[in-house]
Write a structure and sequence with these properties.
single chain, mainly alpha, 68% helix
């Protein structure tokens, strides 16, 4: 491994940690594309996967027994389908195509999470007020699956 790759990995892990721990946003989506600048997307995903799993272990521990089982059950089939499609895609396409797809997905997620001008909902209509999560953004769930489970 060269120093550029190690630096990109360190930056990606740092950004992901801040995103999951402090901002609880989609900013961590940049990790795999960032590492993919120097290596293949499958290698980048393989580097990030153990780190993300460890982060999610701590998140699940923090929110243990605070999930909505009905919502979690709805998420599991889509998660399994995503893993299967992702695995097949990684084995069928070349590294160059994978980099293009990862870039498109990253841009799509970024645009989807971009703040929109909407009317603020009253506390009566909100299903999850700030008090239900806690006053700080660090109290929010980290991964998409734990966010869905917490709804």
């Amino acid at each position: 491994m060269d120093w550029l790759l190690i630096s990109l990995i360190a930056i990606a892990v740092f950004i992901t940690g801040i995103s999951k721990g402090g901002f609880s946003g989609a900013f961590g989506i940049i990790a795999v594309p960032l590492i993919s600048l120097q290596t293949s997307p499958t290698t980048a995903a393989a580097i990030m996967l153990p780190i993300l799993c460890i982060m999610d272990i701590f998140t699940v521990q923090k929110f243990w027994k605070k999930w909505n089982t009905e919502q979690l059950i709805k998420c599991i089939p889509a998660a399994i389908a995503g893993v299967v499609v992702g695995g097949l895609t990684a084995s069928w396409f070349s590294v160059d195509w994978l980099k293009i797809m990862v870039g498109i997905i990253a841009v799509g997620f970024t645009l989807n999470s971009w703040p929109r001008k909407t009317k603020p909902l009253s506390q009566h209509h909100c299903t999850h007020s700030q008090e239900s999560y806690g006053a700080h953004s660090a109290d929010l769930p980290a991964s998409s699956l734990t966010q869905a489970a917490h709804l």
